[in-house]
Amino acid sequence: MPFRISVPASSANLGPGFDSMGLALGLYIHLDVEASDHHAFFAHGSEKPQENHFIWNITEQVAARYGTALPPCKVQEVSEIPLARGLGSSASAIVAGIELANQLGNLQLTNEQKLAFGTEIEGHPDNIAPALFGGLTISTMLDDDIPSVRLHDIELDLIAYIPEVELKTEVARDCLPDTYERNYAARASAMSNLVVAALYSKDYPLFGKMLENDLFHEPFRKTLIPNFDAIREKAKELGAFGTALSGAGPTMLSFVAKGNGETVKETMAKQLEGYQVKVLEIDTKGVSIS
């Protein structure tokens, strides 16, 4: 029975792709699962089992939805994803819980079922989809469907600037307008269209330019983000195509030419006290079992 579930982190929005685009990142939640005579879930860093853990609650919800009893097991969580930093930790946890139920209950869920259940819990698919499928995903919600397309062929290095401070998604949501004027929304939508077109055509200078011209959320959130302008400007000096918030922040991501990530990271790390500065891989597998 022993197996490991691994789920990547994700970065939503990518500038103007607000609430629809997401990119899977090479940071992971792992669940190490083995047979036991009773249920026991050990949270990351804990030596005592936790009775009401978020991931296990999701697992039980999925099992109840499909009328399946779960066999007793021991689950150890190991997480590389910092909480409340804009790296999709809640979506990764949801996907981990769904996959745990799928494996323990032998539910044989389809990708569409997993996406639907995850979106139902999370409220939107922009982080759920990349955590499930890997790569870049573009998704939306229809009344009876969640269409999603994927792009795995992105030839860029990513640099993440992860501050020590947290930013709750609810706080970052509250600063956004309730509505957008029609012409403004049309311009904002056009920026998003160009981001996608530039990625598919590998026009990375255009991608970076559009990345930094979001109108949907970054103009309203930037005052909540330490060093927003300084990070963007310095990364641009060092050759980055563009820099944007990861999700709602406070983490920021720079996209640079393939092979230049380490050089840019080393320089940026010297400029940013109180940050983890990391070169991250783009995860192309999504949730996996080993």
From TrEMBL:
Keywords linked to the UniProt accession: Amino-acid biosynthesis, ATP-binding, Cytoplasm, Kinase, Nucleotide-binding, Threonine biosynthesis, Transferase
Domain spans labelled GHMP kinase C-terminal: 196-272
The protein's enzyme class: transferase
GO biological process, one term: threonine biosynthetic process
SUPFAM superfamilies named in the record: GHMP Kinase, C-terminal domain, Ribosomal protein S5 domain 2-like
Subcellular location: Cytoplasm
Transmembrane helix is among the record's keywords: no
Designated name of the protein: Homoserine kinase
Organism expressing this protein natively: Oceanobacillus oncorhynchi
Encoding gene per record: thrB
